């Protein structure tokens, strides 16, 4: 019995040594939070950046008026960019390519990968619409020469063309190419390229700040027990778990 | 007036005071050199020259520019090292600290060293020979850290070379450069202040130190950018719900009553492919936050366009409880704004009359006399916008008043038990948490590293 108590005592001691974490109560933490000053102007900029980058042109226009925040890009360019994005999302790839070239021919000239992906998407749409002959011709004439330049393009081309080999394309190994997510992927690639060509960052800042919050909390977890925010969408402070 | 409502009013007075102090600080700092004035509120002293008091006396001579060191005598003994530390330790609250030396003359043996040493360092020893010191030596290119042999590290260096030493606080390592290129890194396993240190050890050796007064040979900016990129890559691997950003933007628009924007945002969100499912799980909080949206929008517009009388009328009509106590912080804010608007449109006499009647009752509230003074000072300047109280005429001041009214109205929602939840949008709470985590993490890490500052990212 006495040995058991001894062992338990030792264990407790080891445990207390291990948890040398600083404990910060909710009250103390709230005091620290109150010392943090976030400028309204900066938050407005963050919101505007999101609206602009994600292409909410009408909302961005209203937000400019309602909050007095100037967008960091000419709002007119958003409309054009969104038209391209929408065209890809709806499967009108030819239309999208034309629109990108109207916007700035350099985008596709300087970005062979993007151009290949758009052409690949065009091929996918042809196959989806059952235009087998047209698809084959397009693959051989437009895509194959590009595949010769680049091994990964060639593999992608082969993968795409293999859609033609299956009776039931929706249940074949490359069915994902026909999925809506493929269109979205291509659309967001074009969107990013246009933004980059306008010397604008391709991603909005807010999502990466949210990730940074999770990261910073995880880092602080190693050294302290403090009130965390676990649910980002409500931003409620939890009680510090010890 | 209910005490709880003053929580809100006082909060916004505090924001005002914050702006006032920032404006005053900016006005006094006329010699502000760096472009980054506001965010560098946490100023730290940094090394500017060599320490001429605590050096190894006869074995080194610091020249009158306090940036050059010479070894004058014939070296007689292995211990007769000429070591000089910087006048200040390397600053901590940043991503990277860095300095450079230029080897003017490698002298008889080229036994030059660059490194970092703790404050009690023996001034007759090469950096790296003692514990709590690190040195990159020119004659053998080895790195020394504490008693014992040097470790293979980088190339040797001699006359004409520029060599740099840095502390990377984020990676917790030292790095050294030669002629603009990093030659190696070593883990930093020492705590406490560290002094940039140089040593000369043979006849005619001479080096000059650059603590950043002149441009570095090494591209420090690029190095920092790369460091941040690495950190960002780790952060980007974290996955978050795709809708999180949408929800936060949405609740921000709701919270501040940006009704028109919200309408467009919702409309566009519905037509995106794939459509975004928003706020379905927490429908209840949704209605709370859309509370009185239209009133809040109207009042914001009035205040933002300077129509304070109209805003007052609307408040009296819609929310008499908010403006009922004439001495409340909220009324104070509105009265001050009215005064400011009169000054803005040049109705100075009217402003004087208004100020005399209104400020009189607030001047007795000692907690706001500084703010009253700021307002009154507007009258003293021919061009008030350019004065130290010019901030009052900026949009940000109207914004504070508009935000205060917005929060006040939100707090009249009978479903809200604690007025404090009306103080911040969800976005602001997240950003405050983020900033506080960075600060706390740094303070638990011996104050090392940079803080999070939103403005820098925008």
Automatic annotation (TrEMBL), chain A:
Domain of life of the organism encoding this protein: Eukaryota
Sequence ranges assigned to domain CTLH in this UniProt record: 77-134
SMART domains membership: CRA (SM00757), CTLH (SM00668), LisH (SM00667)
Name this protein carries in UniProt: CTLH domain-containing protein
Organism: Coffea canephora
From TrEMBL, chain B:
Organism per entry: Coffea canephora (Robusta coffee)
Annotated CTLH domain residues: 292-350
Domain B30.2/SPRY: 28-216
UniProt cross-references to CDD domains, sorted A to Z: SPRY_RanBP_like
PROSITE patterns assigned to the protein according to its UniProt record, in alphabetical order: B302_SPRY (PS50188), CTLH (PS50897)
Record Gene3D superfamilies: 2.60.120.920
Any Pfam family matching the protein: SPRY
Signal peptide: none
Protein known as: B30.2/SPRY domain-containing protein
């Amino acid at each position: 019995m006495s040995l058991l108590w001894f062992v338990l005592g030792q264990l407790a001691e080891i445990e207390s040594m291990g948890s040398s974490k600083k404990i910060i109560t909710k009250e103390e933490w709230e005091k620290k939070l109150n010392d943090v000053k976030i400028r309204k102007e900066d938050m407005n900029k963050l919101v505007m950046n999101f609206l602009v980058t994600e292409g909410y042109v009408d909302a961005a226009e209203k937000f400019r008026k309602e909050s007095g925040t100037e967008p960091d890009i000419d709002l007119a360019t958003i409309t054009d960019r969104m038209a391209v994005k929408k065209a890809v999302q709806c499967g009108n790839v030819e239309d999208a390519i034309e629109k990108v070239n109207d916007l700035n021919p350099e985008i596709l000239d300087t970005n062979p990968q993007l151009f290949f992906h758009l052409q690949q998407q065009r091929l996918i749409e042809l196959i989806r619409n059952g235009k087998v002959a047209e698809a084959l011709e397009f693959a051989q004439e437009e895509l194959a020469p590009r595949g010769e330049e680049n091994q990964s393009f060639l593999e992608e081309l082969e993968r795409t063309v293999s859609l033609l080999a299956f009776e039931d394309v929706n249940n074949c190994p490359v069915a994902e190419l026909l999925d809506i997510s493929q269109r979205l992927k291509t659309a967001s690639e074009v969107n990013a390229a246009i933004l980059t060509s306008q010397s604008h960052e391709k991603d909005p800042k807010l999502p990466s700040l949210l990730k940074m919050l999770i990261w910073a909390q995880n880092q602080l977890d190693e050294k302290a027990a403090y009130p965390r925010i676990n649910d980002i969408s409500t931003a409620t402070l939890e009680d510090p778990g010890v | 007036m209910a005490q709880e409502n003053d929580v809100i009013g006082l909060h916004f007075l505090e924001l005002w005071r914050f702006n006032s102090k920032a404006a005053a600080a900016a006005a006094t700092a006329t010699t502000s050199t760096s472009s980054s004035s506001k965010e560098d509120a946490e100023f730290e002293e940094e090394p500017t020259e060599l320490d001429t008091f605590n050096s190894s006396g006869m074995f080194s001579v610091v020249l009158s520019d306090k940036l050059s060191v010479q070894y004058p005598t014939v070296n007689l003994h292995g211990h007769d090292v000429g070591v000089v530390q910087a006048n200040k330790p390397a600053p901590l609250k940043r991503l990277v600290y860095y300095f450079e030396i230029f080897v003017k003359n490698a002298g008889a043996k080229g036994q030059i060293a660059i490194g970092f040493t703790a404050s009690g360092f023996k001034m007759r020893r090469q950096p790296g020979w003692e514990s709590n010191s690190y040195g990159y030596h020119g004659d053998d290119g080895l790195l020394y850290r504490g008693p014992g042999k040097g470790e293979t590290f980088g190339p040797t260096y001699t006359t004409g070379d520029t060599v740099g030493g840095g502390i990377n606080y984020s990676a917790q390592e030292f790095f050294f450069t030669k002629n603009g290129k990093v030659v190696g890194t070593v883990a930093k396993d020492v705590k406490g202040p560290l002094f940039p240190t140089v040593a000369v050890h043979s006849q005619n050796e001479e080096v000059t130190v650059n603590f950043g007064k002149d441009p570095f040979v090494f591209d420090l900016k690029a190095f920092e950018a790369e460091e941040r990129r690495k950190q960002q890559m780790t952060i980007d691997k974290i996955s978050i719900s795709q809708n999180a950003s949408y929800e936060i933007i949405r609740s921000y628009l709701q919270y501040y009553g940006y009704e028109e924007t919200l309408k467009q945002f919702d409309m566009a969100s519905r037509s995106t492919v794939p459509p975004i499912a928003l706020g379905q799980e927490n429908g209840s909080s949704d209605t709370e936050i859309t509370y009185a949206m239209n009133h809040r929008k109207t009042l914001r517009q009035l205040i933002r366009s300077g129509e304070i009388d109209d805003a007052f009328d609307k408040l009296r009509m819609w929310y008499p409880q908010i403006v009922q106590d004439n001495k409340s912080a909220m009324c104070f804010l509105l009265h001050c704004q009215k005064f400011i608007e009169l000054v803005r449109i040049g109705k100075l006499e009217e402003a004087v009359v208004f100020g005399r009647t209104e400020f009189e009752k607030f001047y007795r509230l000692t907690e706001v006399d500084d703010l009253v003074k700021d307002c009154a000072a507007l009258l003293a300047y021919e061009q008030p916008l350019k004065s130290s109280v010019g901030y009052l005429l900026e949009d940000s001041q109207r914004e504070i008043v508009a935000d205060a009214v917005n929060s006040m109205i939100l707090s009249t929602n009978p479903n809200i038990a604690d007025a404090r939840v009306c103080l911040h949008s969800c976005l602001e709470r997240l950003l405050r948490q983020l900033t506080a985590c960075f600060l706390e993490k740094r303070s638990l890490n011996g104050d090392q590293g940079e803080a999070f500052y939103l403005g820098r990212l925008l």
